[in-house]
Amino acid sequence: KAGVTQTPRYLIKTRGQQVTLSCSPISGHRSVSWYQQTPGQGLQFLFEYFSETQRNKGNFPGRFSGRQFSNSRSEMNVSTLELGDSALYLCASSVGTAQETQYFGPGTRLLVL
Amino acid sequence: GEDVEQSLFLSVREGDSSVINCTYTDSSSTYLYWYKQEPGAGLQLLTYIFSNMDMKQDQRLTVLLNKKDKHLSLRIADTQTGDSAIYFCALGGTGRRALTFGSGTRLQVQP
């Protein structure tokens, strides 16, 4: 069974731009969670989607948003990029809920200049 | 708030055992995980333990859970150079909306 896939793997953007990242979960998994990883803050939870609905959200500004499609694929969007948004963005999928075991993708590394 | 702590760095020689430790403050988690991250990669699930267990063994990996002291450890037997990576403990399960991660322990294996 294929693992979690994320595209693109690398992105370079400039301040003020917006970006969309994509995540395809493991087949049969319906929950998708997003995390941000930075050297200073470590791994922080962004949000979780299940059945096309955002179920939980972390403490990030409204510039960070996401959605989930009927095939469980998810996208996250960051608008008005800031230098501090440079990070590795990790997507994780689990079968039914975020309380179950989460399997991570390889991440998208975003650099904001 | 939740607090999960790990030591930053551990260096061992190839063939020795490695023990990576994790302490936490919130004991409500039903699952406790260990993830491995190699340079430039995502998180690889290594193993996990249910909160009602004290120990779990999985090939070269042994997880110990001391609920009284809120202490979790990962022992890697016969450590190899390919084990060099950052190891994260994470709390999850019932009542948690997401995984809570420690800061990670960088394991360096010297030949």
Portion of residues within helices of chain A = under 10%
CA gyration radius of chain A, whole angstroms: 13 Å
Could you state the oligomeric state of the chains shown? heterodimer
Q: Strand-and-helix sequence of chain B, N→C?
A: EEEEEEEEEEE
Report the mean per-residue pLDDT of chain B as an integer: 94
Tell me roughly what share of residues is in helical segments of chain B.
under 10%
Large-scale geometry of chain B: globular
The tally of helices of chain A reads 0
Tell me the total number of β-strands of chain B: 11
In DSSP terms (H or I, runs of 4 or more residues), the helix count of chain B works out at: 0
Low-confidence stretches of chain A: none
**Largest sheet properties of chain A:** 7 strands, mixed
- The percent range for strand residues of chain B is over 45%
Radius of gyration of chain B: 13 Å
Alpha-carbon distance between the termini of chain B?
A: 40 Å
Outline the low-pLDDT stretches of chain B: none
Structural class of chain A: mainly beta
Features:
heterodimer; A: 113 residues; mainly beta; four-stranded antiparallel beta sheet; globular; B: 111 residues; 56% strand
What would your notes on this structure say?
The complex is a heterodimer of chains A (113) and B (111). By secondary structure, chain A is mainly β. Helices cover 0% and strands 53% of the residues of chain A. Chain A is globular and about 35 Å long. With 111 residues, chain B is mainly beta. Chain B has strands spanning 4-6, 9-13, 18-24, 31-37, 43-50, 55-58, 61-66, 71-76, 85-92, 100-101, 105-110. The interface between A and B is medium-sized, with 23 and 24 residues.
SSE topology sketch:
The complex is a heterodimer of chains A (113) and B (111).
Chain A: E1 5-7, E2 10-13, E3 19-24, E4 31-38, E5 42-50, E6 53-57, E7 64-68, E8 74-78, E9 87-94, E10 103-104, E11 108-112
Parallel strand pairs in A: 2-11
Antiparallel strand pairs in A: 1-3, 3-8, 4-5, 4-9, 5-6, 7-8, 9-10, 9-11
Chain B: E1 4-6, E2 9-13, E3 18-24, E4 31-37, E5 43-50, E6 55-58, E7 61-66, E8 71-76, E9 85-92, E10 100-101, E11 105-110
Parallel strand pairs in B: 2-11
Antiparallel strand pairs in B: 1-3, 3-8, 4-5, 4-9, 6-7, 7-8, 9-10, 9-11
